[in-house]
Amino acid sequence: MVGDVGLVGVEPSLHGSGIGLRLLEEASTSFHNLALPFGFLTCRPSVVPFYERGGWKELPGQATRMIDNDLQPETYTGPALALPVLASMSEWPSGQTVIRDGLEV
């Protein structure tokens, strides 16, 4: 089980203000409070460095099963990142598909 982060957004005029990293800190605190081993997210390639600044680690080759806007299953193979919370990155189950079968709203 992982804590899934979706649809993080910061008003462009606030980019560089630290509010995005603060959001990531709040997510991490929530994961700790829920006793989750990892946080997980997918994103566009252009924002990977932002998440890495927040302590997230890219998962090369990670597949994520999700539901698209037409309610059809799809497999996303773009950037995926994990945040080690109560486990180390060496414990990430490499080669396993993350199943995210809910809708993002």
Task: Write up what this structure looks like.
The chain is an alpha/beta fold. It has a single domain, classed as Aminopeptidase (3-Layer(aba) Sandwich), CATH 3.40.630. The chain has helices at residues 19-33, 48-53, and strands at 3-4, 38-42, 57-58, 64-67, 73-76, 80-84, 98-99. The protein has a 4-stranded mixed β-sheet. The protein has a 3-stranded mixed β-sheet with strand order 5-4-7, with no helix packed on it. The relative contact order is 0.22.
What's the topology here?
Elements: E1 3-4, H1 19-33, E2 38-42, H2 48-53, E3 57-58, E4 64-67, E5 73-76, E6 80-84, E7 98-99
Parallel strand pairs: 1-2, 4-7
Antiparallel strand pairs: 2-6, 3-6, 4-5
Features:
Aminopeptidase, three-stranded mixed sheet, 105 residues, 7 strands, 2 helices, globular, alpha/beta
